[in-house]
């Protein structure tokens, strides 16, 4: 948007802006010099009227002279509740020029994800993931930027941009290193707080250069501006008073000087005393008084324009202000002549759109509308928008301002708007609509449903709020049947995400007790078992595993409730270290023809991601890695296709990395886990998913032999006690203990491994592959306490044979060999190689082969171990084997 001013205004606002203009010109030069140059981000910060808009207008002129494509957008004080408003404005030039088929082809997989947010595609029926939508918008803008290079993006009044746009802008700003585009953002200091302020701070940090803080004009510049506007005969005292009255604010100075010119006041010292009164008439209450002088119709026209905020056409304003077409047109002319309104884009071929000359004027006019009248006008505006067929979401910003009046229709409209907002990935906008609906208030039979919808809308962004809303809803009449069960399960999920695991379990347990036997009760029981199964603390209910086993034994997998119970039983058996063949058979019964059942897919909301990760992990830790990898990869593809980011994508990358780690593809594992951790940083630290990414990455780096890097990673990402309240695979205490031993902090490492053993025993977790603390502890105590080390090794062997996988038995034999000497050690190492050769875990096979080669003094085994280790990316194993070969091991 280009601000329209009197002739002197654009140049006036650029007085004393040489440094800023030089930086802008340099940035444009860099952009135009090389389409492969990194992107540039400039942030202009200044109080209202200091010339931010004029600098953006000059940026446009500089860029267009150099042949750049320029797209611009502007935030609006009354438009902050409209999701994606500013990013839509920004991309309108590109979107308008495309046919729907062209846009679909150009945006590819992102069309269905970003398209609804941009208003060029219909939203789906479900709830879009906000981070996925943000990623889709980032991808869309990146593709368009490459097409339209050299591209300059201008965002004015970013402090008034909607939260969804600021979320996108913060993400986009971080990706500019490999995209040649110039982004210039103008904002006021302060103005906003909370999430939006954090997004703007992130934008400033991504700029990689100091924010440009605009200052007021000096007295000398004010004098130059005064003489340039009024003539060289303006005397010094008059010029000095212009500066004093306006505080050096360029906008106020321009408006004041325009008033002086209109009143034909001589610019001499004798008239300097009149400047203060003239200045008051150009702002605040004086502006309102000046508006009223134009007549009641012009005032109503200006009020209606302020209510609309954008898309201000004479026809729309006439409807809202109840003016005839001719009178509305005359009012528009009077307001333009008074420098209150201006034509937004004089060169546009479409209907003439108006805008306020300056945001200060828009704010003053909006605030001057009597409260009751302002609310009523918003109600009329909502009806106009709805009658135009633009939908409830478009009318929502007006509905939010209407006075509560027990209006059943308004409640319905707000609920419908909330559904539309959720479908495009704007849960905060949906939350505002539903909170406003509660103020109406809803009818008693609807009230609980609105609370349930509000709790569901807040789940992704504010799980703590979800808890309160859903508890209240469940305590009211109205929620029955499946909807009530959905609410109970969603409440338990919110409690789990809020680290209230015991309360989550008790919530579903109490609801299940109210119901008769049947599929609904079984669904709740399955959720209860699921939360108990991923809780890392002491067992919540005695005999849980036995009850789960008994219940699962009655299940054939005929519906998803039964399939869920089978998955939970398989996961529990895996964690307890029961027979791997039986575990796989239980898990297979939860599938339909070897695939996930309909309604139980990765993007289905009924059960959540936790259940399917349990299924895949049961396969991963019972040597069925082909099945685990297929499920993990399917998850990643499903989330990518659906545009689901956030925690879902974090976990998908983390578990793909875990599968690579189990296979022995350590470099691929590291890449997946680094991507998982990068995404996890956006979601939030100390969450279970953050632990999953960090724990697996540390474990992978240790396997690669990158000990210093593993330690640095752990320190940087807080991989230390206290541990999360949910289960993490592999066991974080075991990984932490292994890390401490690797960096030479043996005593701390032993203590950590002992704590891991104790915690696992309390939960009955005896799978030696998942909780490998006993194996590492045995090795660590081999010299200090050989008797205890031997007992631990025996226990590891017993657990491994109970589980029965080649990996578990082979690893147990490696531990036993490490505690022996002579031929017994050689025999045990040879047996370990035999088992691990049949295992899908190639890293463990490589380690066993090298250990056997050293004990047996066998060069061929060492060389084969080196080849295996190198294929795994296990640099530490390679160096160890090469050192042994260099010393002549195996030579006679």
From TrEMBL:
InterPro entries in alphabetical order: AAA_16, P-loop_NTPase, TPR-like_helical_dom_sf, TPR_rpt
Presence of keyword Transmembrane: no
Orc1-like AAA ATPase domain boundaries: 16-184
Alphabetic keyword roster: ATP-binding, Nucleotide-binding
Keyword ATP-binding: yes
PANTHER family: TESTICULAR SOLUBLE ADENYLYL CYCLASE (PTHR16305), TRANSCRIPTIONAL ACTIVATOR DOMAIN (PTHR16305:SF35)
Record-given protein name: ATP-binding protein
GO molecular function, one term: ATP binding
């Amino acid at each position: 948007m280009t601000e329209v001013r009197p002739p002197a205004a654009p140049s006036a606002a650029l007085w004393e802006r040489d440094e800023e203009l030089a930086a802008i010109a340099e940035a444009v030069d860099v952009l135009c010099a090389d389409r492969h140059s990194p992107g540039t981000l400039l942030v202009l910060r200044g109080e209202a009227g200091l010339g931010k808009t004029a600098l953006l207008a000059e940026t446009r002129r500089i860029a267009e002279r150099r042949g750049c494509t320029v797209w611009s957008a502007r935030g609006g004080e009354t438009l902050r509740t409209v999701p994606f408003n500013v990013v839509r404005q920004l991309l309108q030039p590109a979107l308008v020029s495309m046919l729907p088929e062209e846009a679909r082809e150009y945006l590819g997989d992102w069309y269905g994800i970003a398209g609804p947010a941009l208003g060029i595609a219909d939203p789906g029926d479900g709830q879009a993931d906000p981070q996925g939508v943000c990623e889709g918008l980032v991808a869309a803008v990146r593709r368009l930027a490459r097409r339209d290079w050299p591209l300059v993006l201008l965002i004015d009044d970013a402090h008034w941009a909607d939260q969804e746009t600021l979320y996108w802008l913060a993400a986009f700003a971080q990706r500019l290193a490999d995209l040649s585009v110039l982004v210039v953002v103008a904002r006021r200091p302060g103005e906003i707080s909370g999430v939006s302020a954090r997004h703007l701070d992130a934008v400033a940090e991504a700029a990689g250069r100091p924010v440009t803080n605009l200052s007021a004009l000096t007295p000398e510049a004010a004098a130059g501006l005064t003489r340039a506007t009024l003539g060289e005969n303006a005397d010094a005292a008059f010029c000095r008073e212009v500066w004093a009255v306006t505080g050096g604010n360029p906008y106020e100075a321009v408006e004041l000087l325009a008033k002086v010119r209109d009143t034909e006041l001589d610019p001499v010292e004798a008239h300097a005393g009149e400047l203060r009164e003239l200045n008051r008439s150009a702002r605040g209450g004086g502006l309102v008084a000046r508006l009223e002088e134009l007549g009641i119709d012009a005032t109503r026209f200006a009020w209606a324009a302020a209510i609309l905020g954008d898309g201000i056409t004479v026809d729309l304003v006439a409807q809202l202000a109840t003016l005839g077409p001719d009178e509305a047109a005359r009012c528009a002319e009077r307001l333009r002549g008074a420098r209150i309104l201006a034509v937004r884009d004089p060169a546009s071929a479409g209907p003439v759109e108006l805008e306020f000359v300056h945001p200060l004027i828009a704010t003053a006019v909006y605030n001057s509308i009597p409260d009751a009248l302002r609310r009523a006008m918003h109600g009329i505006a909502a009806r106009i928008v709805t009658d135009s067929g633009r939908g409830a979401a478009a009318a929502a910003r007006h509905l939010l301002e209407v006075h509560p009046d027990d209006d059943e229709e308004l409640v319905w409209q707000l609920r419908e708007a909330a559904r539309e907002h959720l479908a495009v990935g704007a849960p905060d906008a949906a939350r505002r609509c539903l909170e406003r609906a509660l103020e109406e208030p809803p009818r008693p039979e609807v009230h609980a449903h609105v609370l349930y919808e509000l709790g569901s809308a807040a789940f992704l962004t504010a799980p703590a709020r979800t808890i309160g809303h859903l508890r209240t809803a469940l305590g009211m009449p109205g929620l029955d049947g499946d909807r009530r069960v959905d609410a109970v399960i969603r409440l338990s999920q919110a409690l789990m995400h809020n680290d209230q695991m015991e309360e989550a379990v008790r919530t579903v347990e109490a609801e299940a007790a109210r119901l008769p036997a049947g599929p609904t009760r079984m669904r709740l029981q399955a959720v209860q078992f699921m939360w108990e199964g991923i809780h890392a603390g002491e067992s919540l209910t005695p005999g849980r595993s036995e009850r789960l086993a008994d219940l699962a034994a009655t299940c054939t997998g005929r519906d998803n409730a039964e399939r869920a119970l089978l998955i939970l039983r398989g996961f529990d058996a895996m964690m307890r270290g029961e027979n791997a063949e039986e575990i796989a058979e239980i898990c297979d019964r939860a599938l339909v023809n070897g695939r996930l059942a309909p309604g139980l897919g990765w993007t289905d909301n009924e059960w959540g991601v936790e259940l399917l990760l349990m299924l895949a992990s049961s396969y991963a830790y019972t040597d069925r890695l082909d099945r685990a990898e297929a499920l993990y990869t399917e998850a990643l593809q499903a989330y990518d296709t659906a545009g689901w980011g956030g925690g879902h994508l974090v976990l998908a990358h983390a578990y793909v990395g875990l599968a690579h780690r189990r296979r022995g593809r350590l470099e691929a594992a590291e890449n997946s886990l680094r991507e998982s951790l990068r995404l996890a940083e956006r979601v939030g630290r100390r969450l279970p998913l953050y632990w999953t990414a960090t724990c697996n990455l540390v474990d992978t780096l240790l396997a690669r032999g990158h000990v210093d890097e593993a330690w640095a990673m752990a320190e940087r990402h807080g991989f230390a006690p206290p541990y999360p309240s949910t289960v993490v695979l592999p066991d974080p205490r075991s990984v932490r203990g292994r890390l401490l031993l690797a960096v030479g902090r043996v005593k701390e490492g032993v203590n950590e491994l002992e704590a891991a053993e104790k915690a696992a025993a309390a939960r009955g977790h005896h799978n030696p592959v998942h909780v490998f603390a006993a194996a590492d502890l045995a090795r660590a105590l081999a010299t200090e306490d050989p008797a205890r080390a031997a007992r631990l090794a025996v226990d590891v062997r017993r657990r491994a044979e109970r589980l029965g996988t080649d990996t578990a038995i082979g690893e147990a034999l490696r531990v036993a060999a490490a505690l022996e000497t002579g031929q017994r050690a050689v025999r045990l190492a040879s047996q370990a190689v035999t088992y691990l050769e049949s295992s899908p875990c190639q890293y463990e096979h490589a380690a066993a082969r090298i250990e056997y080669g050293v004990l047996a003094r066998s060069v061929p085994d060492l060389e084969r171990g080196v080849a295996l280790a190198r294929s795994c990316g296990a640099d530490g194993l390679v160096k160890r084997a090469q050192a042994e070969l260099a010393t002549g091991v195996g030579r006679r």
